[in-house]
Amino acid sequence: MKRGDKDEGVDFKIKHVTVGGKKLKLAIWDTAGQERFRTLTGSYYRGAQGIIMVYDVTRRETFTNLSDIWAKEIDLYSTNQDCIKMLVGNKVDKESERVVSKKEGIDFAREYGCLFLECSAKTRVNVEQCFDELVLKILDTPSLLADGSTGLKKNIFKEKPPETTTTAGGCCSY
């Protein structure tokens, strides 16, 4: 089914990955960012260990909606205080049509404490790396792995990432 063909507004997939020698099963809820389904999507954030926000580098409004709509929704409904957030700029295969610069994506990710990556779903560039990097960060966050961890609710988008989180190489380097 194509993303635009969704009747419910949310697509559910199971993805099996092996990261760091561990076989993991990811439950992925794709809300497609359609504003008409916003009343449904709040429940999908509750208990999430990781959230990926995707914008189209060729459509400015998808980037603008991140801070205007989706960051607020996630902050309102996410219950895991240490939930890992990732910002992904898609459609880098259309470089000549780009209207959102990589620097803008990096700046947004820094401001909101997100991992960052650009990819192309069409050419598959960095798509697997997106999931791998998110899972590695979740596995490196003990509070997200504890059974029944609920942590105190806090504003997950207003915390600045620690200055020491920048790493050499990888998708999430600044």
Question: Which descriptors apply to this entry?
Answer:
174 residues, alpha/beta, Rossmann fold, three-stranded parallel sheet, 5 strands, 31% helix, 21% strand, nucleotide-binding, GTP-binding, GTP binding, Rab
- First-to-last CA distance: 35 Å
Give the helix tally: 5
**What's the pLDDT, averaged over the residues?**
77
Relative helix content: 25-40%
- How do the strands of the widest beta sheet line up side by side? 3-4-5
Number of domains: 1
Percent range for β-strand residues: 15-25%
- Gyration radius, in Å: 16 Å
The strand count comes to: 5
Largest sheet: 3 strands, parallel
CATH architecture: 3-Layer(aba) Sandwich
Model regions low in confidence, pLDDT < 50 over at least 5 residues: 1-7, 148-174
Secondary-structure element series = EEHEHEHEHH
Which class in CATH terms?
Answer: Alpha Beta
Task: Quote the CATH topology.
Answer: Rossmann fold
Judging from the principal axes of the Cα atoms, what is the shape?
Answer: globular
- The secondary structure category is alpha/beta
What is the assigned CATH homologous superfamily?
A: P-loop containing nucleotide triphosphate hydrolases
